Amino acid sequence: QVQLVESGGGSVQAGGSLRLSCRGSGPTFGSYAMAWFRQAPGKDREFVAAISWKGSFIHYADSVRGRFTISRDNNARGTIFLQMNSLRPEDTATYFCAADEQMGRWSPEEYLYWGQGTQVTVSV
Q1: Burial 72-86, CB ≥16 within 10 A → b, else e
Q2: For position 27, what pLDDT does the model report?
Q3: Alpha-carbon distance 48 to 62, whole Å?
Q4: What whole-number distance in Å separates Cα of residue 65 and Cα of residue 4?
Q5: Dist CA 111 CA 74 (whole Å)
Q6: Pure H helices in the chain
Q7: Taking Cα atoms as reference points, which of 66, 65, 68, 70 lies closest to residue 50?
Q8: Which of 116, 124, 100 is nearest to 39 (CA)?
Q9: Which tens digits make up the pLDDT trace of 2-17?
Q10: Which of 49, 62, 53, 28 has the alpha carbon at shortest distance from 96?
């Protein structure tokens, strides 16, 4: 069984920054690729960023590239971060952490494990 727990969400004004964390654990947690997705009210869940197990491969959605940075704790590879800078009102959403055995997947249907989500609200 795999557990993913996100933290670090909150409210911030446009142009501000937030840092999200996701800790993966469980007896069956393996060398998984991990990713961030987000879902705004009334919209589909969308890909934000993904990172491979060793952190050597990273991919971003066009909407966040250059503003968001995904990283992995080298001492605890089950933990990933999402540094979000220059936040915009359109970044407002619930952010979810996901994990899967394979890298290179950008669709939420392709991910096996999910966290409960953390809310990010960006005001003008």
Answers
A1: beeeebbbbbbebee
A2: 84
A3: 8
A4: 24
A5: 22
A6: none
A7: 70
A8: 116
A9: 999 999 999 999 999 9
A10: 49
SS3 34: strand
pLDDT tens string 63-77: 999 999 999 998 888
- CA distance linking residue 47 with residue 37, whole number of Å: 5
Q: Is the dihedral of CA 91, 96, 102, 106 positive or negative?
A: negative
Backbone angles phi, psi at 91, to 5 degrees: -85, -5
pLDDT band at 26 (very low <50, low <70, confident <90, very high): confident
Distances (CA, A) of 1 to 25, 26, 77, 122: 8, 6, 17, 34
- Reduced to 3 states, what is the DSSP secondary structure of residue 9? coil
Distance CA 67, CA 81 (A): 14
Structure tokens at 29: 């947690």
Decide: 122 and 14 in contact? Cβ < 8 Å. yes
The per-residue pLDDT for 63 is: 98
